[in-house]
Amino acid sequence: MGAHEEIGGPEVALLEAIAEAATPGPWVTRRGTCEVFSLAGGHLLAVTHTQFPDRPRALHEEDARFIAALNPEMVRRLIATVYRLQADVARLEAELAEARPDQGVAQPTEPLSPG
User: pTM here?
Assistant: First the structure.
């Protein structure tokens, strides 16, 4: 998947299910380590350095920070944002179609102005 490709319904549903089943957050790392811990349970969730000893330690620490940042609550918030934005797009498309019933939604003939 490319950096700017959208995800579809099945992928969102899978992410929701995975986030729901995961250990609750927040997740954190300790400074200078490659370990991810759950503050909710206080236990170790991941270690990012054991399988790739040829990579610089700083990369492993960055991976651990990324994993911690993308905890289940953050995934749920991102998904909620996707749903809200999709609803906004559908609403705006409907408003545009209603305002310009003879022109369709895809190609307005003049720029839309805010407001």
Answer: 0.70
